Amino acid sequence: MLRPSLTLATLLLLSGAALATDSNDVYDELCECKFVPPKLTVPVLIRDFHSSHPDFEYRISEDYDIVTDTLGNDGRPVYKPKTKSYTTTGKANFDQWYRDVPGVNIAITKNLELTEVEPGLWEYHSDHFFPINNEGFGNSFNGRNYHFTLEMHLKFTYVPGTSFTFTGDDDLFLYINNKLAVNIGGVHDALTRTIHLDEMAEQLGIEVGETYNFDLFFAERHTVESNFQFQTTMQLECL
């Protein structure tokens, strides 16, 4: 269970990341995981951006060459070297997505409420996903705040039959055991991906009965829609 005073630096260190010590990694508080059947509330960290950021309101396309297949030692996605991502403008700008940069982004802690829609099946569903309206730098278009990233750091114990389905726009990078399990990069309409961990166990280096990190990174980079939906049989817990 996360304590309200737990910083992101501590959170990532607990998840096995060797995090550099700098002021960008420290936050005053994160919310607790709370389980009140059939609801599970989990903490997320959102960073608000101006629409003028080079990677936002830029090109529109699916883009599967943004990040490498392994989470970085600092617990963040690593920009893919020696390639030209069509919807991003280089490593320096991408590295701002999931790091605090004064004047470029504003970090905001929030909660997501998952619902157990069937025994053992958890869902979060929003086809109107604007969690920081009227916050951060303020709304940018049509009374809504579109330009933000989100990250979620949890854990789960792998049991046979585990699956995860995500539907959303724009970018979604899910790492399990520090390995890229879902890659829906780019700026696009809502796309859906489903993974079955039994089919990916060797690729992800996971074994039944063991506990692994679940690190999810999302970006909403373009008007005019924002979808963020997932279903999973993972029994997600705070670190």
From TrEMBL:
Residues 1-20 form the signal peptide. Keywords: Signal. GO terms for cellular component: extracellular region. The keyword Signal applies. Residues 99-239 form the PA14 domain. NCBIfam families: Fibro_Slime. This is Fibro-slime domain-containing protein. It comes from Venatoribacter cucullus.
